[in-house]
Amino acid sequence: MSHVLTADGGTESLRVRIYDLNGTCVASHAEPYETKFLSGARAEQNAGDWWSSLVKATNICLREANVSGDAIEAMAYAATCCTVVALDKEGAPLRPALMWMDVRADKEAEAVLETGDKRLVLNSNGQGPVSAEWMIPKALWLKRNEPQIFDDAVTICEYQDYLTMRLTGERCASLNNVGLRWHYANRDGGWATSIIEALGMP
Length: 202
Known about the structure:
The protein is of the alpha+beta class. It contains seven helices and nine strands, in the order E-E-E-E-E-H-E-E-E-H-H-H-E-H-H-H. It folds into two domains: 1-36 and 47-79, ATPase, nucleotide binding domain (Nucleotidyltransferase, domain 5, 2-Layer Sandwich), CATH 3.30.420; 81-202, Nucleotidyltransferase, domain 5. A hairpin with a 4-residue loop joins strand 2 (13-20) and strand 3. Helix 2 (106-114) crosses helix 3 (135-145). The longest helix is centred in the N-terminal third of the chain and has 19 residues, at 47-65.
């Protein structure tokens, strides 16, 4: 019988469930991982822990459901928004990920707002806030404070994008997240390159 596997990368753990095609949950497991809290409202996780937790939780659920991997017809997954990780050309993390709750990039958020870029307008209804939690301020923080990491990074992405890369080998971004937090707007040409260029980031 075919099944569907779901995964949810949260703040404290990665949760996996397996459902049959009637929608019945036949297995569930949450695999915890560590968060390192630092001074200055900083919080970090090791991206490798996300992957190892996904693998472990999946294997536990397959055993609990008494099904093989071949029985999984589809997979759906989600993760915390704005948890940012820098990757090298091999896809390896260059440093611990900056978690969504990490707000060290407060000055960088101000710098993004100060660009006055039209992409800062939210829902065509005035200029919205820019949070230190978001991707662009965190990337700018890396450029300003850890320039070697920034220069060595081939990709700066979010938690779920890292999982996508590990699962498929492809580097791509969640359209949901880029639309919400990266100032991406399809109707205006897509990526907010004008903001990136104004901040001196390639």
